[in-house]
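Hello,

I think I submitted the 4'-deoxy-4'-aminopyridoxal-5'-phosphate job twice by accident. Can you confirm which output corresponds to this input? Input:
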Amino acid sequence: MAIVTPQTLRQDFPLLVHHPELVYLNSAATSQKPQAVIEAVSRYYRELNASVHRGAYTLSAQASEAYEQARRTLARFIGAEEREIIFVRNTTEALNLVAYAWGLRNLQPGDEILLTEMEHHANLVPWHLVCERTGARIKAIPLGDDGRLELEHLGTLLTERVRLVSVMHVSNVLGTVNPVAQIAQAARAVGALVLVDGAQSAPHMPVDVRALGADFYAFSGHKMLGPTGIGVLWGRYEVLETLAPFLGGGSMIREVYVDRSTYAQPPQRFEAGTPAVAEAVGLAAAVEYLERLGMANVWQHELELAAYALARLDEELPEVRTFGPRGQDRSGVIPFVLGSIHAHDVATALDQYGIAVRAGHHCAQPLHRKLGVAATVRASFYVYTTREDVDRFIEALKKVRDFFKDWL
Ligand code: PMP
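Support: Only one job matched these inputs. Its output is below.
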């Protein structure tokens, strides 16, 4: 199915209907939700709500089935097996889960973790914490001036000391699509595991975790039309089976004594306590919505919007400096600075025209250090973003430029 023209598609999003003048360009931070998702969550609470995996009564069985059906939907979405889908709160929790459940148990002094200079703090700080406790070290694939990773360094960086390569699939700042399959292949050749931060890829492009050749893939529901408080860690089953629990409590055990316990098989081993059932059901509805649009269409739509926005910025706003690669390996994320005006001032000024963009370091301080700027403004697109949104953004940015012209 071709992507519905976003003008009509906007009608599916109550918030966008409620704010007809809003140009929402911060979907890389969090997306808006279609009626189908809001309704799925609401229906769950109206008709199905009960404790899952515990009650002997019919309603509990139905709630459990809704939760497990959501797991099947998520598995289908990324080409995984159902038993490989672990529901977590978000990408941050998924990455921490691997750092603690795998890293704490397996890393030793002298071991290395290979990251990249463009990572989100969610894929840096958990490794700092775990390295402090294990004595392992962190290295990073450098970022080149064109906004792409310098993969020519991979050969020297990937020694047999590297136990894990953890890389973002798509940059939340630059939009760069990293060649994850190629990196994974090189990593596996030295026996390293591969973790992919899919926070900015799962919402925007077709993803097949097996084709990526990774061992883990993490993403958040709220960035892909789903509710907050729900995300996924996918792991290859053979690897998940070797992992120690992360959080302990109900639902993740086999047998418990006062002084010891044994643990359930994955994925239950990693889902301690009452899960976010309504949120999982809502996320499955989001996935079904995206599947109806077709992920290839979603990606194409964003490529076109990004190319259109960049061309207009280049042509009409020479005072604006954009970052990130130019080409088909770039998602609908446009980071920029306007002369030497602080990013927050630009974003606040844009807000006067109803344009919602984010300003700051976008949880990527090492990347901004490398770019040589303290902060950037970021416009990011999604399924409901129209060309008219981009036009209004550019016209507003021209007014902001005119306002600041004496300070540029
Ligand atoms: N990784 C990337 C690439 C992201 O863009 C984000 C969200 N900005 C995260 C991780 C963290 O996601 P969450 O806040 O949903 O845990």
